[in-house]
Amino acid sequence: MLTSDWVPMPNRFLYLVVLQEAQPPRFVLHTTEFGLWMKTTSMGYLLAPSNNLIYAVTNGVVFHLLASLALMSHLRTMLTDPGSVPLGNPPGSDTVSYCFICRSAIPERAYHCIVCGRCIRKSDHHCPWVNNCVGEDNQKYFLLFTLYIGLISTHILLLLGIPILLSHARGEWNASSTVSPSGPILFLFLVALMGFLFALVMLCSQMCAIYRDKTITEMLYQNKRSQGRRSLWANMKAICGSRVSLAWLSPFHTPECHKSREHHDPA
Ligand SMILES: [Zn+2]
Ligand SMILES: [Zn+2]
């Protein structure tokens, strides 16, 4: 998982070992807190009171499956080297420029991140939610993270909305009804809606960047070095793996191109 002399920030491990408020992983901790709260509330208020065991078990399994995939995607985005250029990297055949901040010869489409203090290959952006840059080698996991957060949020919105629509269809809810949702249910709805919108925006911006073969960094700085050299399909294969398979949807699977870079990069 690790390449060159890149090591995860100490705070990334701190997050795993001691769940305390440290400055950089604040967003990471809030993501975890929201996830745990959503799980407890969804199970306690939406599924546990159900009289239908099959409904409760099926939705419980779906929720936990999506939550596990989202958590794994989150961890891999956070702990995978995004494609850092080794500090003091000597000029090579792929060198196109020199970074005076980290004193490294850098290849095409590598940009310096002031948070990581390193140049990152095909740097997209530095994401506070994963406390890491999103770059060439962890973009797949970030895509999956936004995808599974979007699916979990959609699942919760459906669990909230379908019973309401059904009871409305049965005539149990009308203009004179005085029943109102409880505080936790209302807050769960707002959090799920926020998660859905966040995932939608991030997923759309990522797909737009992949379609144009330009990272968000390149779009922001109007960089003309990359001008959509490949098709969307070729770009997806470069990120997720050369063979289209279910492995594209798995955060446990490392694309072959990333494995070969790990193998060839000096330790
Ligand atoms: Zn640099
Ligand atoms: Zn960074």
From TrEMBL:
Pfam family, one: DHHC
Cellular component, GO annotation: membrane
Enzyme class: transferase
Membrane-topology descriptor: Multi-pass membrane protein
Ranges that cross the membrane: 53-72, 141-165, 185-211
InterPro entries attached to this UniProt entry: Palmitoyltrfase_DHHC, PFA4/ZDH16/20/ERF2-like
Known EC number: 2.3.1.225
One function term, GO molecular function aspect: protein-cysteine S-palmitoyltransferase activity
Keyword set, alphabetical order: Acyltransferase, Membrane, Transferase, Transmembrane, Transmembrane helix
Catalytic activity: L-cysteinyl-[protein] + hexadecanoyl-CoA = S-hexadecanoyl-L-cysteinyl-[protein] + CoA
Free-text comment on this protein's domains from its UniProt entry: The DHHC domain is required for palmitoyltransferase activity.
Family named by the database record: Belongs to the DHHC palmitoyltransferase family.
Protein name: Palmitoyltransferase
Originating species: Neotoma lepida
